[in-house]
C-alpha cells in the first residue's frame, strides 16, 4: 500500500483507498461519462490497477473470478443505465453463488437527477434516473446510494463490511458531481472491520450439540461444499477433517476446497451419480456433517443425494442444524475452529479409508479419435499443484468433476447459477488474482497456472475477453471443446435440432485477431487421442510464455459419463431417449444400477 494521503481528499479517492485497503489490487470495468472523473483518482493509488474489459457482463464475471481466488471482493465499475444493466446477469451469478462483489456505478449528477433531465441513457420525457438502481435491488445485499457528502464515507464503509459478512454483491451508486467533493483523509486511518461478530454463547451451544452427536455416532463422515470457501473457512475445514480422521467427501461445487490429496479424502459424493462403490461408502455413514452445503439439482445429482435430517449436521455460513435442531447466529469460520479445538486430540473413530473398485474401462477405449472418456483422465494428468481450474457449464464441468485434483488446486465454476460464458470472462479475473497472490511464491511451478476448460457454445458469449487476457500478457491455458454446439442441451432435448447448433468458428484466427505475440506456436488443434497426448506434453503448455489456446474437436453426441448418467437418472424414458438418439454411453446402461428415476417430481 502506498503513502496514506493527508488533509482533504475527494470522495472518489476515498472510495478507492478503502477498496484498496481491504486487499483489492485490480479494478475491472468499462468507462462511461458518469464515471470518468473518479476513475482518474484510482491511478493515484500505489498498487491499485485498472484492467478494462470488453463489456460490462465480462467485467462482472472477471470480478467474480478474481474474488473467488483472492478471497477479497472483486470490484468493477460501470456507467449509469447502459453499463450497470449489462452487468446484471453477472451480479445475479455472484448473488446466487455467494461471491463478494463491489459494483461501483457512476451516476448522473444530483442536479440532473433532481431536475429529471433527459440525459442520454435515460427513459422518457421526465426520467427517473434511479430506475436502474431499483432494477438491481433484489440482486445485492446492500447499496450505498450516495447523495450527501457528510454521510457518504460511512455509507461506503458500511457496504464494504456487508460485502464480507454476507459474501455477495454490494453496490456503490456514486453521482458524478459528488465524487469530486472533499472528505477528511484521516477517515482512512481506522480500517474497516470486515470480521463477523461472533456470538460466543451461540457458538458454544452449537459446538456442544455437534460433539455430543459425534460421540454417539459410529460411522460419521464429512461432506465439504463451496460455502466453506466463500465464507473463508477453508483452513478451518481442512483442520477439522484432519482431526476427525474419518473418510470424507466433497460435493461437485466443493471440489478442491479441502485438498483432494488429504489422506482420508474419498471422492465426489454426488448421489446416484457417483463412481461405483463410492455412494455405498457414503450411505453407510450414520452421521453426515456437511460444511457449507448447497443442495441444488446440479450439485446434488438431480436431488438424488438423500441425506435425512435425523442423521445430519449442517454447518452453514450463519447457523448450524444438528439432527433437525437449529442453532442460529453462528459463523462458519469461527465455529469450525472452535469445533476442531473441542475435539479430542486422539480421534474417537477409527474408520479405515475404504478401498474403491478400480476405475471402469470405457467402451470406446479403442477409438483413435478424441473422446470425452479419454480427455478427462488426460486433463487430470496435465494439471499440477497450485493450478486454478476454471470450468464451464456444459460437458466440461461434469468431466472436471470426474477427475482428482492435485494439491492446492482452486476450482472456479458456476455449478449453481450456470450462466454460460461465465468461465471465459472469469478466467481473466482468476489469473489477475493468481498473479497477485503468487508474487509471494518463489517459483512459477509453485504458483501454478490458470487453466480454462470451456465449450464452444459457452465461449461464444464472452470470447472477446480473450483479447483482454492477451493485452494483459496473461499466460493462461485455454481448452475449448469444439463439438459443434450445445451438447448438454442436446442431451436434454432436441439432439439434432438446429437450435442446438452454433456458428462454426475458426479458432485459429482468434489469437491473431487480438495481436497475440506468437499465435502459431500458441494455437493447437486436436482431433485424435495421440495429438492430445503430444500437445499436453509441449513446453508451451507445461510452462507457457504466452496465452495458449487448444481446440479439442469432439463428437457432438459424446459426453462425460457423469452428465449422461445425471440425465439418464431422471427417468427410464430419458435413458431411452439418450440411447435412441445415439449419444455415447461410456460404460453401458448409462452407468446406472437398476432402473432410473427417483422420487423427485420434475413436473
Ligand atoms: C446465459 C445462458 N444462456 C443459456 C443457457 C442454457 N445453456 C446451458 S448449457 C448450454 C450449452 C453449452 O454449450 P457448450 O458450451 O458448447 O457446452 P457443451 O455441452 O457442448 O460441452 C446452454 C445454451 C445458460 N445456461 N446460460
Ligand atoms: Mg459445445
TrEMBL record:
<dbReference type="InterPro" id="IPR012110">
    <property type="entry name" value="PDC/IPDC-like"/>
</dbReference>
<comment type="similarity">
    <text>Belongs to the TPP enzyme family.</text>
</comment>
<dbReference type="InterPro" id="IPR011766">
    <property type="entry name" value="TPP_enzyme_TPP-bd"/>
</dbReference>
<dbReference type="Pfam" id="PF00205">
    <property type="entry name" value="TPP_enzyme_M"/>
</dbReference>
<feature type="binding site">
    <location>
        <position position="485"/>
    </location>
    <ligand>
        <name>Mg(2+)</name>
    </ligand>
</feature>
<feature type="domain" description="Thiamine pyrophosphate enzyme TPP-binding">
    <location>
        <begin position="404"/>
        <end position="491"/>
    </location>
</feature>
<dbReference type="Pfam" id="PF02775">
    <property type="entry name" value="TPP_enzyme_C"/>
</dbReference>
<dbReference type="InterPro" id="IPR047214">
    <property type="entry name" value="TPP_PDC_IPDC"/>
</dbReference>
<keyword id="KW-0786">Thiamine pyrophosphate</keyword>
<dbReference type="InterPro" id="IPR029035">
    <property type="entry name" value="DHS-like_NAD/FAD-binding_dom"/>
</dbReference>
<feature type="domain" description="Thiamine pyrophosphate enzyme central">
    <location>
        <begin position="207"/>
        <end position="321"/>
    </location>
</feature>
<feature type="binding site">
    <location>
        <position position="456"/>
    </location>
    <ligand>
        <name>Mg(2+)</name>
    </ligand>
</feature>
<keyword id="KW-0210">Decarboxylase</keyword>
<dbReference type="GO" id="GO:0030976">
    <property type="term" value="F:thiamine pyrophosphate binding"/>
</dbReference>
<dbReference type="InterPro" id="IPR012001">
    <property type="entry name" value="Thiamin_PyroP_enz_TPP-bd_dom"/>
</dbReference>
<keyword id="KW-0670">Pyruvate</keyword>
<protein>
    <recommendedName>
        <fullName>Pyruvate decarboxylase</fullName>
        <ecNumber>4.1.1.1</ecNumber>
    </recommendedName>
</protein>
<dbReference type="Pfam" id="PF02776">
    <property type="entry name" value="TPP_enzyme_N"/>
</dbReference>
<dbReference type="InterPro" id="IPR012000">
    <property type="entry name" value="Thiamin_PyroP_enz_cen_dom"/>
</dbReference>
<dbReference type="GO" id="GO:0004737">
    <property type="term" value="F:pyruvate decarboxylase activity"/>
</dbReference>
<feature type="domain" description="Thiamine pyrophosphate enzyme N-terminal TPP-binding">
    <location>
        <begin position="10"/>
        <end position="118"/>
    </location>
</feature>
<dbReference type="GO" id="GO:0005634">
    <property type="term" value="C:nucleus"/>
</dbReference>
<dbReference type="InterPro" id="IPR029061">
    <property type="entry name" value="THDP-binding"/>
</dbReference>
<dbReference type="GO" id="GO:0000287">
    <property type="term" value="F:magnesium ion binding"/>
</dbReference>
<keyword id="KW-0479">Metal-binding</keyword>
<dbReference type="InterPro" id="IPR047213">
    <property type="entry name" value="TPP_PYR_PDC_IPDC-like"/>
</dbReference>
<dbReference type="GO" id="GO:0000949">
    <property type="term" value="P:aromatic amino acid family catabolic process to alcohol via Ehrlich pathway"/>
</dbReference>
<dbReference type="GO" id="GO:0005829">
    <property type="term" value="C:cytosol"/>
</dbReference>
<keyword id="KW-0460">Magnesium</keyword>
<keyword id="KW-0456">Lyase</keyword>
<feature type="binding site">
    <location>
        <position position="483"/>
    </location>
    <ligand>
        <name>Mg(2+)</name>
    </ligand>
</feature>
